[in-house]
Amino acid sequence: MNTRRIVSAALLTCALTPALVWAWPWSQDMMNQPSVKPQEGVPKPFPRHSVPVQGIPTEYNSREETKSLANPIPVSDESLYKGHALFRIYCAACHGLTGQADSPVTEKIGAIPLIDDYVQKQLTEGWVFGTITFGSAIMPAYGVPQKREGQTGSNDLSVEERWHVVNYVKHGLVKDAAAAQQAQVK
Ligand code: HEC
User: For the chain, which residues make up each domain, given as ranges?
Assistant: First the structure.
């Protein structure tokens, strides 16, 4: 067997057995590391009633408990902007785009106007936060995955997002509703 034959036989072997080639010690994929990969192992569930935000206690169970909470997010253009966007996604379907209880389902579901004195003056910011978190009689919960026995809820809105919505409901909605009414009159 001359050298040429040996080389071509070796090349042929490599070409025909790619699996073998990959299995060589220096062919290790960099993906195989000791680090923990996404979806590896059993994910730990979040503790009950935990809320993922800095500095806010996690042990509230009802609106009664959140009623006198102070809003930790200052009213700012940025907060109102975020609150407005979230309001249109999560609240407008039932309460109307500007909280005037004028959406097609408002009446069917019994949603109330949010620009009236009842919500604007009587309800505290903490109560509105609690309403978004735990839901109300008919209104769904947006801060707890399971509201009450037999009733569903979600944790779609983070604690911070809920406060942005509270800011918008209390400090942006009435103005936007007035502007919308004005636009209709013209
Ligand atoms: C599926 C329809 C629906 C959606 C979506 C909805 N609500 Fe409601 N909401 C209601 C209904 C119905 C009521 C009145 C009956 C009740 O209290 O459940 C209500 C009542 C309220 C009240 C008054 C609570 C009280 O103590 O009287 C507030 C404040 C409120 N909603 C805010 C919001 C905000 C903010 C959002 C968005 C995060 C929202 N709602 C989304 C249906 C809805």
Answer: 63-185
165 lines ligand 1 (CB under 6 A): yes
Pocket test for ligand 1, best of 84, 95, 120 (most atoms within 8 A of CB): 95
pTM over 0.85: no
Q: Quick: pLDDT tens for 82-122.
A: 999 999 999 999 999 999 999 999 999 999 999 999 999 99
Ligand 1 neighbour 132 (Cβ under 6 A): yes
| Long-range pairs of 162-165 with CB within 8 A, sequence gap ≥ 24 | 162/129, 162/132, 162/133, 163/71, 163/72, 163/73, 163/79, 163/129, 164/73, 164/79, 164/80, 164/82, 164/83, 164/86, 165/83, 165/86, 165/87, 165/90, 165/91, 165/132
What per-residue string of b and e applies to 106-140 under the rule 16 or more CB within 10 Å gives b? Answer: beeeebebbbeeebbeebbbbbbbbbbbbbeeebb
| CATH 3.40.225.10 holds for 63-185 | no
Ligand 1 pocket test target in 88, 115, 116, 136 with most atoms within 8 Å of CB: 136
User: 136 C-alpha vs ligand 1 centroid, how far in Å?
Assistant: 7
Question: Ligand 1 within 6 A of 80 CB?
Answer: no
